[in-house]
Specification:
single chain; 439 residues; alpha+beta; 2 domains; elongated; disordered C terminus
């Protein structure tokens, strides 16, 4: 050990104090100050803008602990129109890791959202962000995203749908990538949450999307589901759906299966603008099974119960002329509407035609009854062509039998209902098992 002068020792101690104490302290203080400046907030907004493809505004942010950031008053906006798409009172993001199906560690981020709100009109733009994420066009798909929200409110034309206990996420699967969501309706008492899932299947070429819905016996307002399919709005403001949907997308349209119940269908709302005088009343429809292929219904089986309500005179005549659902002999014909207490109709539908059978409990084989009297009876012919069904629902004069009217009112039916084969085999007989209907 060589001796040091006192001045040298002082200089070494001063340098060590500055390098090991003062400078690190100043660096930490400077880093802490920088974390609270608007430049740091703007940098975070820019990073989120890059990840989402949307304009991002953050009121303030706090770094609670290493890897945990809290964003307050967060808003997502359309960069083209400036319209606010989603706003949250607070979002707490925690960086962590997870183990995938191959026992490999991958980064993950857990988001806890407080008081999220969104307009139904904004959902289409937000769904584009989700689609690009599933197609790996934006963001980093290797990062697992987990979402939890205490409440999510969807605003639609003055109405508000509140979802509670929202859980979801986006992550890779062995065959692609999926987004899942579960929630409960506000005020609901269901023991299990409603489940939704969107899957990007990369095991087919080209990759395709799949959509699954299971309401867990909970009746969801169709106004809420109209975010995904606007045609559901035609079922009326109080209609609800309970059941399951399993589908996948192809180049020529969606394919899949559906089963469940539609409760509170407004028949007048459906027939408005689609027939001459239509049917009024509230109905409940049970779909035992419906299969759709390339965006078109292939087959469907179920029944519909309605009442009380009315049937317009031209609709009653059209049902008799094209489907054989005739008025009872004691019912006078004229311009007066038929008032019924109960309407019950079973149906079987596929490319071979439509088979109908009355299922009013009061009178066997009756389609509609009033005060215990039969108003409409089951058609004598077991099966009718699809064209006859369209003519009955959209009556048009001077149209040949079994021909589809080329009108604006009938176009949606022509695009939805099955297409018959050029040459069909024998028609299947109708089943009139009322016990089957009650299951």
């Amino acid at each position: 050990m060589f001796p040091l002068y006192d001045q040298t020792r002082r200089q070494i101690c001063t340098a060590a104090f500055l390098g090991l104490c003062v400078l690190p302290t100043l660096a930490v203080i400077g880093w802490s100050i920088a974390r609270h400046t608007r430049w740091h907030r703007q940098a975070e907004e820019q990073q989120l803008r890059y990840e989402l493809g949307l304009d991002v505004s953050v009121g303030s942010l706090k770094h609670l602990t290493p890897g945990v950031v809290r964003y307050e008053d967060l808003k997502l906006s359309d960069p083209e129109t400036g319209q606010c798409l989603l706003q949250c009172a607070a979002v707490e993001a925690t960086w962590t890791s997870m183990t995938d199906s191959h026992d490999q560690q991958r980064p993950a981020i857990a988001l806890f959202v407080t008081q999220a709100e969104c307009a139904a009109a904004s959902w289409q733009r937000l769904s584009e962000v989700l689609r690009r994420r599933l197609e790996c066009r934006d963001g980093r798909p290797e990062i697992e995203v987990r979402l939890s929200a205490d409440q999510f409110t969807l605003h639609d034309a003055g109405d508000a749908h509140a979802l509670e206990n929202v859980e979801g996420g986006i992550g890779l699967t062995p065959g692609g990538i999926q987004a899942r969501l579960s929630f409960r309706l506000s005020g609901g008492t269901a023991s299990e949450p409603i489940q939704m899932r969107i899957v990007r299947n990369r095991q087919v070429s080209p990759p395709s999307n799949g959509f699954d819905l299971d309401t867990r016996r909970v009746a969801i307002p169709c106004r809420l589901l109209a975010v995904f399919d606007k045609d559901l709005q035609s079922l009326g403001p109080d209609c609800r759906f309970s059941g399951t949907v399993s589908s996948y997308e192809t180049a020529s349209g969606w394919c899949g299966d559906l089963s469940g119940q539609l409760l509170g269908i407004d028949l007048a709302h459906i027939s408005s603008g689609r027939s001459l005088d239509g049917i009024t009343g509230v109905a409940n429809a049970t779909v035992k099974r419906a299969k759709f292929l390339h965006g078109r219904l292939e087959e469907m089986e179920g029944w519909i119960i309605a009442g009380p309500g009315t049937i317009g005179p031209s609709t009653a005549e059209s049902l008799a002329a094209h489907l054989g659902i005739a008025r009872a002999t004691e019912q006078a014909r004229g311009n007066a509407s038929l008032s019924f207490d109960r309407l019950g109709l079973q149906f079987w539908l596929d490319n071979r035609g439509v088979t109908l059978a009355g299922c009013c409990d009061e009178k066997s084989g009756a389609v509609a009854v009033c005060d215990g009297r039969v108003l409409l009876g089951s058609p004598p012919t077991q099966s009718q062509p699809i064209a006859a069904l369209i003519q009955a629902l959209v009556p048009v004069s001077s149209v040949p039998a079994n021909a589809v009217p080329a009108t604006r009112q009938s176009s949606w039916l022509s695009q939805l209902l099955p297409l018959p084969d050029a040459a069909t085999g024998p028609q299947r007989p109708a089943s009139r098992d009322s016990d089957e209907r009650r299951k």
